[in-house]
Amino acid sequence: MTPTITAFKQSPDRGRGLARDMRVRWALEEVGQPYEVRLLSFAEMKEPAHLRLHPFGQIPTYEEGDLALFESGAIVFHIAERHPGLLPVDKNARTRAIGWMFASINTIEPPILDLQNAKLLEGDKPWSQQRLPLVQDRIRVRLGQLSTRLGDADWLDGAFSAGDLMMVAVLFRLKPSGMLDEYPRLSDYVARGESRPAFKRAFADQLAVFTASQPTG
Ligand SMILES: N[C@@H](CCC(=O)N[C@@H](CS)C(=O)NCC(=O)O)C(=O)O
Known about the structure:
The protein is of the alpha+beta class and about 220 residues long. The chain has helices spanning about 20-30, 40-45, 50, 70-80, 90-120, 130-150, 160-170, 185-195, 195-215; strands spanning about 5-10, 35-40, 60-65, 65-70.
């Protein structure tokens, strides 16, 4: 059965791959699973039909037969569980890869989101400029630790896994800030993820939503 995911109809990031449907698209591309996309406006995301799928009125969601999922991490985990290729066969290695998935969304993504909120939602507050360095330093602590753990390895724990997919997708959201460039091992790590054919296909597909919605001429 072909799964259907949801994504932004009017991509606020102009198709730069920052919205979280990107990680779901990437996972589906990695395992070779075709999928359909239902595009939603911000208003449609808050309507009852979508709220039945996603209690917080957000994207992405995932529907497959009678299964409906929300939360990008849970969706990528489901895809990785159902298809070979994104989680190691060895039980301990598999559990460690899942651990990295959690680390990406529970330890690395929160300070990155805080930076986005500080810039987008709090940029006009009188205290915003004073708070920004604190937010950036919290990110630097995590990036430093992650860079040390990655060392000179290509991926976090052996072969590329759903843990790397999630971590690269989360770090990718830092690119516009330029902070990733302070950590060459991490920017190389993200570049390795970006160079995967599955990433490129996913990126092109989500960018096409933005370009298609742009007026021509
Ligand atoms: N923890 C959720 C976060 C979902 C989320 O924040 N989605 C954003 C797009 S990346 C969204 O729908 N924003 C619009 C809104 O919250 O109204 C996940 O990982 O799926």
